[in-house]
Write a structure and sequence with these properties.
- The complex is a heterodimer of chains A (about 600) and B (about 90).
- Chain A is mainly α and about 600 residues long.
- Chain A contains 26 helices and 3 strands.
- A 3-stranded antiparallel sheet of chain A has the order 1-3-2.
- The two termini of chain A are about 35 Å apart.
- Chain B has one domain.
- Helix content of chain B is about 70%, strand content about 0%.
- In chain B, helix 1 packs antiparallel against helix 3.
- Chain B is elongated.
- Classes of the chains: A mainly alpha (about 600), B mainly alpha (about 90).
- At the A-B interface, helix 6, helix 11, helix 12, helix 14 and helix 16 of A face helix 1, helix 2 and helix 3 of B.
């Protein structure tokens, strides 16, 4: 069926895969009509997709270093874009983002701007130059550009802190979804999630992760867009929701005024009854509800963090050329845009279907007893994601008496809007794909840095290929287990730790990476001071704010990267200027990096 | 000025233009959130502030990256720095 090389057949292979997945959805829909239980449909969806990823992971196994570390540098532009989009969009983007917009409105949408705007920095400041460099990992670039094990090690430390903070949240998300879909306890589900993640990455490293991520992107984007379009059409809100929901946004503002949003405050005693983690609507849907600085500082942190997160950067090491790396960033953002521009639309549809008394699904204004008798309310109330209570005792549900978990916006809206259960199963598979693909990229980023930069470059430079790749795999499993163990403890929420990861990465790596390309005078001493000083300053500020320090310049625990990266910049410039300029060979190397043609700085196998 | 310096000069110029546009749509306009909300410019009927955060700026970033990539390719071509297939 597929003649010739795998790479040449990619459109055909993934076309067949997408077709097969759609047939699977239709089969499930037929099975649902024939009476298959909701639980069984959920199990089928998650199990079927995870098995496919594992199969792709197995077929991509390799024993070559450049295939293991950079997928052989032959991933075509558009496919790398899809893989990056899956790598990038985590459980937080898929499950939590629409919920955040639903509850917090405009102030929260700083994340949308930040998580997309960062790619302009990636494309213009870094990706093409790092691709020309020909490195395997981000610390590989830092170590070679600045020279010396100290610089390399500092980069590994920052990378590990940022990526590990991020990965526990992702393993937590795979565990949550697996436990709901497969109906097993969370503590066990976390390890089921981990096993699926390792199956995708262990045998084939970056090569396997690349091809599973493309497959995961296809699943997650179908799972996100299909319900948005379906609900919008079902409600009669518009054939193409993105361009046609202006009336709905206006209608929500009207209803907010009608229901007295913000005027009626719940007492502390009333709020005590509400289960932990659930929230009511307290912020207007589309109004500007935050100060410009709060919005901008959060967006800035997310943008600089995007340009410093190693698991994203290393995706651009896999393209065939510098030119392809640049274009690939554009494709990545395009594929991300498809989901991000849909999240506010989903939040709008979800809110309106609950609020509008003119719609059959609206619950505000109905009697409490009536709402409590609704099937979906009972299901999600049991899952601890929905709650109503008659605070004022008038027997009717008011806007301030309805509470929901952030995850419910994505997970429960299809059911609320009356879509068949097959869509809910699809959404679960999509969430699983989003969390798994990001976890894969992160675990690989950490273990590659430890195996390539610490083990091979610093401890045992004479190690043979086979030994290096075995060490890489052992580290992969160890890091996966460490992540799962911490995830099982459930210390932080998903979204909070994701934002921290961006701040950590920005504190330690943003300026050392950017100045490595754009400032020839930057040297090893400066870079080490910048990386470690930035990371320490950022972390110290975070700890101080969390233990009660009011902070300065309006920098909060979500934006501590601003403090970290400024310290990093100042230290890096001052220390660089006080110490000797880099030698002529290093300066020539930087010149080489700046032109796309010619040989890579580091050889094909290094 | 050597050929390489000229190439870098042009590359830097392109970077500054790209970052300037990026700055306007990622940071600049959000200093004026309240003004955008009150504005009579309503793309597709949405309030301007809402529209920019959920589609406008995002879409501009996508276009900006492709535009930047094209311009950079032209600069590389002009100085003969385009990669060959066998590199």
């Amino acid at each position: 069926m597929f003649k010739g090389k795998f790479i040449d057949n990619l459109p055909k292979i993934y076309g067949t895969y997408t077709g097969g997945f759609i047939v699977f959805i239709i089969l499930m829909a037929i099975a649902e009509q024939a009476g298959m239980s909701a639980k069984l449909i959920g199990i089928f969806f998650v199990a079927f997709t995870v098995l496919i990823y594992a199969l792709i992971g197995y077929l991509s196994r390799t024993m070559q270093t450049d295939a293991y570390y950079v997928a052989g540098r032959q991933v075509p532009t558009v496919f790398n874009g899809m893989a990056t989009a899956a790598d990038w969009m985590s459980g937080a983007s898929f499950v939590a983002m629409a919920g955040g917009i639903y509850f917090k409105g405009y102030g929260y949408m700083a994340l949308l701007v930040g998580w997309t705007g960062g790619y302009v920095l990636v494309a213009s400041l870094l990706a093409p130059y790092l691709r020309k460099f020909g490195c395997y990992t981000v610390p590989d670039f830092i170590g070679t550009r600045y020279g010396g094990n100290m610089a390399r090690l500092s980069a590994v430390i920052v990378l590990t802190v940022a990526s590990f903070t991020y990965v526990t949240a992702q393993i937590n998300a795979t565990g949550t979804i697996a436990s709901v879909a497969l109906d097993i306890p969370f503590e066990i589900a976390v390890y089921v999630g981990l096993a699926s993640i390792l199956m995708c990455s262990m045998l084939g490293g970056m090569r396997a992760v690349t091809w599973t991520q493309v497959a995961q992107y296809i699943v997650l984007i179908i799972a996100y867009l299909l319900p948005v379009f379906w609900i919008s059409n079902k409600m009669g809100a518009g054939v193409f929701p993105h361009f046609m929901l202006a009336d709905e946004v206006a209608r929500i503002a009207e209803l907010e005024a009608q229901f007295g949003l913000g005027e009626i405050k719940n007492s502390a005693a009333d709020l005590k009854q509400v289960p932990k983690g659930l929230a009511g609507i307290t912020k207007a849907h589309a109004e500007v509800n935050t100060t410009p600085w709060k919005f901008i500082s959060l967006a800035v942190c997310m943008m600089a963090g995007t340009a410093s997160l190693p698991h994203v950067m290393m995706r651009y090491f896999t393209t065939p050329s510098v030119k392809a790396a640049r274009r690939s960033v554009g494709w990545s953002l395009f594929f991300i845009f498809l989901l991000y521009s849909s999240a506010p639309m989903l939040a709008t549809l979800s809110k309106l279907s609950l609020m509008d008394p003119n719609l059959a699904t609206g619950i505000i204004g109905k009697s409490i007893a009536e709402v409590q008798a609704i099937d979906w309310y009972q299901n999600w109330n049991q899952a601890n994601l929905m709650f109503v209570s008659d605070f004022n005792g008038n027997g009717t549900l008011e806007l301030n008496e309805f509470f929901m978990g952030g995850k419910a916006v994505v997970l429960a809206t299809p059911e609320i809007a009356g879509l068949p259960y097959v869509i809910s199963g699809l959404v679960a598979a999509g969430g699983m794909a989003a969390a798994m693909s990001t976890a894969d990229g992160l675990v690989l980023a950490i273990s590659n840095a430890l195996s390539h930069d610490v083990y091979y470059k610093m401890i045992n430079p004479k190690a043979e290929t086979a030994k290096r790749l075995i060490v890489a795999r052992i580290l992969l499993v160890l890091i996966g287990f460490a992540g799962a163990t911490i995830a099982a403890l459930e210390i932080q929420g998903i979204l909070g730790s994701v934002i921290w990861a961006f701040d950590f990465a920005m504190s330690g790596l943003f300026f050392p990476l950017v100045l490595g390309v754009w400032w020839k005078r930057a040297n090893a001493q400066g870079a080490v001071a910048g990386m470690l000083g930035g990371l320490i300053a950022g972390t110290a500020y975070l700890i101080a704010v969390r233990s009660g320090y009011p902070g300065f310049w309006g920098v909060t625990q979500l934006t501590f990267g601003i403090v970290g990266s400024l310290v990093s910049l100042v230290l890096m410039v001052v220390v660089s200027l006080m110490t000797k300029a880099p030698d002529a060979a290093t300066q020539r190397m930087v010149d080489e990096v700046r032109i796309p043609s010619g040989k890579a700085i580091l050889g094909k196998q290094h | 000025m050597s050929k390489q310096q000229q190439h870098w000069e042009k590359t830097r110029m392109l970077l500054f233009i790209t970052l300037a546009i990026w700055f306007v749509f990622s940071i600049g306009i959000f200093f004026f959130g309240a003004e955008m909300e009150a504005s009579s410019i309503r793309p597709l009927g949405y309030p301007l502030s809402y529209y920019m955060t959920c589609q406008g700026s995002l879409g501009i970033f996508v276009i900006l990256i492709f535009w930047f990539a094209n311009r950079q390719e032209k600069i590389d071509e002009e100085f003969g720095y385009t990669e060959r297939e066998d590199d």
